[in-house]
Design brief:
mainly alpha; Arc Repressor Mutant, subunit A; two-stranded antiparallel ribbon; 6 helices; 2 strands; elongated
């Protein structure tokens, strides 16, 4: 399930997109997130591995977008953070002797896959540039 990582990643990318020519430090990003730099560095690593962010070390180091705003879609972030379905299954195993219980997870899996696909398509229609222009 997607937790707050989607929001954190979009926040980081939006901040970088607002300052496209600057190398932003993890402390600066953490200040915007009202979080800590260690969490930011962990999330920057995931964004870097996905090719969305580039980083450099040293006195003038920091991170910035690795691609133009127009070439980053919110679906890129969604696909990065999505580990399983958006919605989750019941933590209890259904009763296999029940007509509904023995079929519910298969039926829900099909429904959840459709929902995930719809969300991915919707987010694929929005670039980071459009998101930033509309909201900031």
């Amino acid at each position: 399930m997607i937790r707050s990582k989607f929001a954190i990643h979009v926040h980081i990318l939006s901040l970088m997109g607002t300052f496209p020519d600057e190398w932003l430090t993890s402390d600066f990003i953490a200040g915007s997130l009202n979080s800590n730099a260690a969490l930011v560095r962990k999330e920057l690593s995931a964004l870097r591995n996905a090719g969305l962010v580039e980083s450099r070390e040293g006195k003038n180091g920091g991170s910035r977008l690795a691609r133009p705003l127009e070439n980053i879609r919110l679906s890129d972030v969604f696909n990065l953070v999505k580990e399983d379905h958006i919605f989750g299954f019941s933590p209890n195993d259904p009763n296999p002797d029940c007509l509904v219980g023995k079929n519910i997870n298969k039926a829900l899996d099909s429904l959840f896959t459709s929902i995930d696909d719809m969300v991915g398509r919707q987010l694929g229609q929005v670039t980071l540039a459009e998101f930033i222009k509309k909201h900031f």
